[in-house]
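We treat protein structure as text, and this decision shapes the records that our systems exchange. We quote a single record here, exactly as it is kept in our systems:
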Amino acid sequence: MTDIQRPRVTEVEQHGIDTIPAAHRHSRPLDLFRIQFGGANTFATVILGTFPVLLGLSLWQAVAATVLGVLVGSVFLAPMGLFGPLTGTNNAVASGAHFGVRGRIVGSFLSLLTAIAFYSISVWVSGDAVVGALVRLAGVDDSDLLRGVVYAILGAIVIVVVIYGYAFMLLVNKIVVYGNTALILLGVLAYSGTLDFGYNPGPEAYALGSFWPTFVLSALIVMGNPISFGAFLGDWSRYIPAATKPSRLLAATFGAQLATLVPFLFGVFTATLVAGEADYIVALINVSPAWYALLLIVVAFLGGLSTGITSLYGTGLDFSSVFPRLNRVQASLVIGGLAFVFILVGRLAFDLLASVNAFVGAIVICTTPWMIIMTIGYVVRRGHYREADLQVFNQGRIGGAYWFGNGVNWRGMAAWIPAAILGLLFANYPPLIEGPFRNVAGGIDISLPVSIGTAAVLYLALIHLFPEPRYVFGPDGPRGVPAAEAEMPAIVDDHAASEHRVKARTGATE
């Protein structure tokens, strides 16, 4: 039996997107549960929970849309936790098995999009909550300068934790799982006498003019939260032993996402208390009992850390592999800096509702078909992956099982690109994303079924019509699809590789 080496919490993580050795696989499915729930048990999720009410649904319509969005999103997300233990690396690199070791740049792009969006949202809304509480409790004047300072402090603390890495991040999320859950549930006591369980603004309040289009849009926005984890689950599950039962991994992810109904429903119910107010966070703090307004600072602070950390950590990993001149720490600093600029510009120049709506829409439409292709690939290959072959591009080599055509598996790419484009053409996330075909179903947003259906049909058709080589399927062969006989290209050094990739190949350190 392998002796597991557990790092100290204060020890800076040494691993990038390289394969995690068996001796360093110190996590369990429970940790995967904690880090997901902790990363979503925050004000960023609370804000997403307010959207169904802000869009004009009644209280119980909003609850139904929220539960539906979480359930559907969890179903699509759950398989994404299976890749890390099998490949020992993150999901973007693991996607090279289906998109090619160079084509996996798609996953890196999705990771970057999600990280900037949710890191920004977490710091943004958590900072606003802290400012709102300070204004009420300490009597300070609200200003853009004060908000900018609070954003900077929160953002900087997030980056420090990210630099220390996985072990420190896991500790923070363990605290948030218990601490924020207790604090949020205290809201039942704080607002017990003021909630209106019959809240219903009437049909004239529907943002999209009628019930079903508004209901579907609300569910899709909520669904964006579980979908946003798709590119990141491998960042954490790669530390789980490869022999872990898939059922335990699936249960950890599905259970963690169901648990996010705690912050989601907090957002739904409290949104009815401040309906019509321009700034939900400040308005909520103003209607809260003083003792709970103080606790909201803790909820906001812990939540901002947790969501920001889980978003930024994985992208720092992956960005450093796409741009090998940067190590994990440097890449995290670059992404954090870009996201902070987005926070300031977004806060001063754009509407929060519109910005969040657009980013969540883009994440759902682009990430879900990528996840569908990954899941189908996992099934037809019986969960068989070659760890070393996935690292070929990162180490400045060519060849191996996943080289396909010059490092790109055109089957996966030819399924994902049309699926994402068609999804955007049918999307309706006003006012920033309004596709030309958004009204073909009477105003109901059908972008998700269009993108999912397109990806699934095209990918299955392509791997049937143009079978993948037998060597990618492993000793048991393919499941339900044909395979082509071919000789696997040998892995050789790429003499045109940058010096930074050569260092990764030789194990040298900067």
Remarks:
- The mean pLDDT is 86.
- The radius of gyration is 23 Å.
